[in-house]
Amino acid sequence: xxxxxxxxxxxxxxxxxxxxxxxxxxxxxxxxxxxxxxxxxxxxxxxxxxxxxxxxxxxxxxxxxxxxxxxxxxxxxxxxxxxxxxxxxxxxxxxxxxxxxxxxxxxxxxxxxxxxxxxxxxxxxxxxxxxxxxxxxxxxxxxxxxxxxxxxxxxxxxxxxxxxxxxxxxxxxxxxxxxxxxxxxxxxxxxxxxxxxxxxxxxxxxxxxxxxxxxxxxxxxxxxxxxxxxxxxxxxxxxxxxxxxxxxxxxxxxxxxxxxxxxxxxxxxxxxxxxxxxxxxxxxxxxxxxxxxxxxxxxxxxxxxxxxxxxxxxxxxxxxxxxxxxxxxxxxxxxxxxxxxxxxxxxxxxxxxxxxxxxxxxxxxxx
Length: 367
Ligand SMILES: [Zn+2]
Ligand SMILES: [Zn+2]
Ligand SMILES: [Zn+2]
Known about the structure:
The protein is an alpha+beta fold. About 25% of the residues lie in helices and about 25% in strands. The site of one zinc ion (ZN) has 5 residues, from helix 4.
């Protein structure tokens, strides 16, 4: 067999068609189908990013503060703010009306009690997160932390506070000025509940946090075999190829089974259940890693539209026992295609690029 033939054979054998089960939440699975021509999905249109520094009509731009509700928090102060937190004018959940919970036969409702806040991430309209000063980006996460703490303290009816960011129309961002949001809600969201439940079950069986286990696995199997004589790389071991970058305190991983093709998760290396307990030193390190990850995604996808959201242990006595089994993390879900009827109907999301290949491309980005 000549070299070309063997290359072809290799490419063919590398085409993957398999269903992968999420190790953390086994009811979540993904279909990885990388064979050429396997393109069942409509690609999301690329958009030109709005890079303007200031827009006169934008309610989030400096000078237009009167267009938003009064600030709940400003950093460093109201006059020279760099980060500004306000209540959402169009709140999904609010605390203005208090209605009793209703049960109508099988249909139940829980009062839409909660808080919905907008974090205006930067005074500059069109700045991307990876273009911000690292110190600024760390301050943004510090602001999230303060709001989480305050909201949990303020009202015991609040069961969970979800912090998230939508960037780009495909990710549901309605205002182009860079911002993130926070929704304090009266229920534990299903996604968080599933992770807590399954990680607790794993802990009871193995006496280990499953997230720590995944990190260990990724780190342990990261190996390169060198030629003893020449010192050249002979082979890279194929397990543990999911690491995108590791810093002193954090790791960015492309999950082995994730719903979105370019999805990346960031975990603290040392076990920690609650994001609020993350120290300033750790936050600086985290912010740097997240910025580089966003830069990698933006480079590989030539402009990334995405959501990110934080999963952390809910407060309250009911979760005291999950301190050792749950591990906070940030999930980044780039939007590169529109889910189809197959995906919505089956719950099986299709990846046409393998997680291994995606991780490789993201790792290879040069700064
Ligand atoms: Zn603006
Ligand atoms: Zn852990
Ligand atoms: Zn999660």
